From TrEMBL, chains A, B, C, D, E, F:
Its cofactor is Mn(2+). The keyword Manganese applies. This is Agmatinase. InterPro entries: Agmatinase-rel, Ureohydrolase, Ureohydrolase_dom_sf, Ureohydrolase_Mn_BS. Signal peptide: none annotated. It holds the Pfam family Arginase. It comes from the Bacteria. It comes from Prosthecodimorpha staleyi. GO terms for biological process: putrescine biosynthetic process from arginine, via agmatine. Belongs to the arginase family. Agmatinase subfamily. Binds 2 manganese ions per subunit. Keywords: Hydrolase, Manganese, Metal-binding. Its EC number is 3.5.3.11.
Length: 321, 321, 321, 321, 321, 321
């Protein structure tokens, strides 16, 4: 049979080690030879409310095994496409950046090093947080791989400059990104309700050219209007805070905010983006499994990432890349 | 007063044994004299990821007590109807099929026997799973009670023929059903994302005349288009995998899949179906309560079943049956 | 800096005692000098299914700390407004009414006394339940502060007159309210599915002039049609049963009912109400945290109340009040 | 084979309705013809902290199914005895007393009536709480079936006379019992730490002839010294508050208290008691399953009751009764 | 009546704000006038495994309300003593030290300041962690209030000097303490199993005069032998890591270790210590409530602290202090 | 420094992939070159009550990371030994046996093959269940590596021959083992309470030379008496059902039974066994993490296995092996 299920193991989802998508482990970052390298950054010292996102990478890896039992890739009948065929899209699990408790600076330096290694290997970095502070070293690692436009999907603007001396907490990453020379713009969607960013943070973001859209504004404007805020030809880094989604599907997170995105709203934007722009980096942050006994937050994260990767490489395939 | 609440017990939902809808127990299947017989099949050896659906029948029975304290039936103000009046719709709880651990064949045989007894008694079988594999003996039991058209509500196509020798797991039931002489067609809705059914399973299903619609396709096409795929006059068996619903309302299941149906989307199809066709059997599967501490999955299952039964018998009453 | 974050403490959400919105405690009710006084009524002996709403006030207070770290008020970019500036809207946490186990009459008397004290102080009472029975003493406390129109957001009509002698359980409050001379009308929205209110309860409600709308009826009619059921110039008391919301966002409650309101559906009604009418009292009931390990029900309650208060005082400010 | 497992159903623990020990239901209390009748009293309005014991009866019934799959009785190799042979000890599940929300007096009256019916039928009443207040109607029901000595196993003395008018809460039952003419004495063991009973409650209890022993005092004195406090020939009613056990094995309760009894400490007292005295009534209270996701509290309750019943009837058998 | 329950409120445990023991809040640390001041340090960036101890203070405060309803103090029948009479032992809740996310140095400085204020006020500091790193600023704060001997109850030695630059994580506090001039010795009990302290850490500790005893060694040696390791006349600071207790009673912690102390083993040491030495400071750390849905870890912490305080002040009273 | 922590990564417990003890993965079973090979058998179709042990291997692996951060082995101060030094005891994680849903025969065959491969490689097999049925293929795999004596630690005798045709469920393994020519005897400890093994099962076991001891019998007899039931010179296979331990420390299991072993009771037997006999195989079964939100059952399993392995290789080292 063509799918080859009878050859080798059945390998049901609950069987075997938890690597991302059950793909091979490569923790020697100098030996990465792949299209995608998945890296965990299990850091949660930047959070301002519930900690626990340090177990995000493990939760997402475990959840991803549910979606990895198509031996010949994942067939999607809506799109009539087989995503991520094993022989065409080489994904490796690069393990985790080394975290040093009590020490944000050193932890972020370790994380930045890991992302730089992945970029040097020519693979697409897919980073599993950790809290949103881990976006800071990720963006820094692109200093020689820019320019990039950032698409942020999040409940919170995360545009605090400095407060009580804190510059690298989970309320600061977009401000830090905006300061980088290789970051040419930001599109921030899903932003809603009160958060640590005060009015002057919004003004600061807007003055730096950021586009800020709430969930309802995205719904009213439509997918294409969102994409229109990203310059044609821009290379896009996508940062997904799981709390950009509604708490009904993402309860396992540190700072939930009601009124978030539903599943297809985000996926349709990501699918269109994959077709229209080059996606050069991805992080997905703030999954805190201790607050989600049913595990649906982890499943959401895994499903979003696997499908988004599918869209990206299917678009590349169609483009003949 | 007409409702009679002061006579006898108040019988609040949390009081008393957990039978389905607090209706009487009849475990002597040769003695069933009822319009509806509810049967549990607490089997979960067919699942490919999280087990635990063996406690589905108990969870649904417990949850159903919340909706059973209307002594004179359940008044619905939207429909201005009183559903399931105790004196007009006789529902009995037939207990569970006998499950034999490690032994799928024997367990399924026991389940098939039970459903045959209910059909022989002239009652509508309403089966509480268990994982979706339990649909296989249910459909077989209709061999002398066909022909039937199957309406499946599910995230997964469940159309695997055989893999590593497995033919009666929870990925196989629709393929097994399609093989039965007394099954004349399938309408499969809610199907989305990757699952154990590979591309050839879809092709197989379509070649056998199955209609396959995703959640988004159902939303776009509308309720009536779904019903139009069921031949006029067909006798319909409805199989509801709780993961056809969105994880936000059905987290307690073995293989959650984001992007599922919301409550009214399904109920409006079921209500229209009850008015347009004869419903001859129902199963609801894959409720795994260990993964849902808040219990909303069980409440969903109970609410769906009690309302669907209400629609069916109200339609019969209106039709003068 | 204008926000003043560097002065004094950072005071992150997880730091410090749990008072509502981290506002000051005033348990000497004769000393209340505030615009808003938040009172807990941790009573749950009126429930007909799952108990536990007695911990509602503590859960909501804890959750509210997440939304209270804007030192200068809460900036909402969608509305371009800063809600609840600390120096303009004085909110105090008045602690809890004294509950006497086994004794509903005495507990309700204590609760009524507390609300009367708040009204006497000229503050807006915001009451945290407790089960919905606690609405009964709240409404009674308005006897000298009427007339009022009640807007109820709920899955259940709660219009039972008396059953087995019970007149002050959580199925009775709207019936009790309708009997009060100072209650001039009711608008009851979100009502759906079977509950303890039988058909005659609906007839009774309608005969007393109540408007009853299901979730789907509200969706079809639209926000303005809902508001149109409230007479112009009416002073409005809003009672929010958290089960009026969908179980996907409010699983932690005693009697969940699928098919409920989503977040913005309710918030847009409340925002419009704040602009069109005087809101003179609020209660939010039936949060039972033991059934919600992720805590999203408490976050919903806190978010609804803080935003609603923001709408009310922003409307007052605009009106020059 | 002698055990007869192949005849009829395998009937694994997870299969079938949840009745106590999977024994038959008899809810027509005038028709009880049994050695033991198990009654639930799902009342929790008497608790002073965490509610939820109203689901105690359901949790204990569910848990008891784990210990009920010996078709020919339960063989205990330590005692080399087969306990509760189905053909010799007739146990029935009498369902629940009718509870009226908000109304303790009426609920207790209903409970007392149920226990009186069981006593009139000549069966041993085994009552599943509910909070400890339900002991009050149970003891009252013995007014024509005394005299009785009470053995209480509990963390708390429960000897409050009246406070804020409350006389029938879960802090009052032993004081109420001591007032009854047919109660000749109390042995109260496991009592420890602070509770609602103040110093004068202890003095009151002692002045009425009660023996009060802490966990450590029982350990030091030994089993026989405990039994020596019960007069020879006394007919004994045993009331077991699950919080008499250590929180490590009974976390699912309203008012946990560390330093409690371990399993065999209690069982050895109960086994000796069964051999030395006539046990005429039993209640087990305060199981609150919402606070115990692992379910071990329910298993403890079921195991204690089934073994205790085994001891009682084995002792009767040996005594030739 | 002497207890005064009828005067004022009944004030059941579940009613009212969560302050430690329901005692008054004094967050102006210059205004503390009390025998005991309870301070939270909700810091968890020092942990090497599961985070979440930042919610320890809130969990312990909530749990302590269960043990605070004796209006006239807590009567203990085993000791025939009334502990912590409100009019004799003045306890205040001083709120939390200000925590700065990402910044251990600044957080610890804030914590040290708070403890210094309490010491300056002449109150006994009782500190609620947070992870064990918070012991570092606590001990530093005693620089002018020494000398002190430290009694540590813990599964782990916490004697790491420096690793990857980390000197103030939760594996370092005892090493840091041993360096302080005002710390004259350590008694470390409960230490067991593997942890972050390697062999050289043990050697280092012993060379600095520390006494290290495992749970089994304490059991064998007995309580008095433990106390004998503390010099007569020493002023003792007690640091209790909740994981010193067995996971059966303290599951809600970051790094559980089986084989720990049971309740009375610790309490009897603390009671004897209170009688033999002056206790000048206490901290209790590592309660992580997200990992304990039943809440027994918080109850343990509250029970340990309230009883320990009772022992201390009863000993002072007896000594005529 | 000798421990080498500053070289390379800090590698905190929560960082990195979940392999057993963070040891390397070798899933090519023909390439195993190690002292110990850890294999998961995630099979749970043999259970008679709560399923979920299929996630035992993942839970134990995750928990084992907590105990694996000693870079130079695990120092135990009680024994003054460094266990499992990385350079002396080579442990590999061999992944999982391939499980085929619905098919016990094929799953067991796959498991047997895996254990045979490990034995062929000369490594000590350490197997993570799955339910206790997985012991059946494990013992079979020793057919060429006998004779063996089995030490079982368990609440249940598991000595059912056949019932309803079932011979390879979790109630059958010891009966199956006793039939094997290469199994020379059994020592079964911890056995207590009712289970699926009826009286004739006990008689059967005894007639085949098995020693059966309850928890209390082991406590009374002492460790040495237990070891004396194992013939001198016997090669011992140890099978540990986690429910042999008390539910207080092992709540996450399918069929909990109160009154089980505490931690040191078992560890001291295992340590003595390691010194007195050759241990040739180990399995640890029935960890079902879905029933243990605090995770202490997984920590227990990991701690037991890592310490037991430490004892074994330390004994070998001392013996000069």
């Amino acid at each position: 049979m063509s799918h080859g299920y009878e050859k080798g193991r059945l390998d049901l989802p609950f069987v075997g080690h938890c690597t991302f998508g059950k793909r091979p482990i490569v923790t020697d970052w100098d030996a990465i030879d792949a299209d995608v390298a998945v890296l965990g950054i299990p850091y949660d010292m930047g959070t301002q409310y519930r900690s626990g996102a340090r177990f995000g990478p493990r939760a997402i890896r475990e959840a991803s095994t549910l979606f990895s039992f198509g031996h010949g890739g994942a067939y999607d009948h809506e799109d009539d496409a087989t995503y991520l065929p094993l022989d065409q899209v080489r994904i490796v699990d690069a393990g985790d950046a080394d975290i040093v408790h009590t020490d944000t600076v050193r932890s972020h330096a370790n994380a930045e090093l890991a992302v730089r290694k992945i970029l040097a290997a020519g693979a697409l970095p897919v980073v599993l947080g950790g809290d949103h502070a881990i976006n800071i070293p990720c963006i820094r690692a692109f200093s020689e791989h820019g320019p990039i436009h950032i698409l942020q999907i999040d409940a919170h603007l995360d545009f605090v400059d400095v407060r009580h001396g804190v510059t690298e907490g989970h309320g600061n990453p977009m401000r830090r990104a905006a300061e980088q020379a290789h970051v040419t713009g930001l599109t921030q969607i899903g932003i809603r309700n009160v958060s640590s960013t005060a009015r002057e943070g919004y003004e600061d973001a807007r003055s730096r050219g950021s586009t800020i859209l709430s969930v309802r504004q995205v719904r009213k404007a439509g997918r294409d209007a969102v994409l229109a805020t990203i310059p044609a030809g821009a290379r896009v880094y996508v940062t997904i805070d799981i709390d950009g989604f509604d708490p009904s599907i993402a309860p396992g997170t540190g700072t939930p905010s009601h009124g978030g995105f539903l599943y297809y709203e985000v996926m349709e934007i990501l699918q269109a983006l994959a077709a229209s722009h080059a996606v050069v980096g991805i992080d997905l942050v703030e999954v805190a499994p201790a607050y989600d006994p049913s595990g649906i937050t982890g499943f959401l994260a895994a499903q979003v990432l696997l499908n988004f990767l599918g869209y990206i490489f299917e678009a590349k395939r169609k483009a003949g890349a």
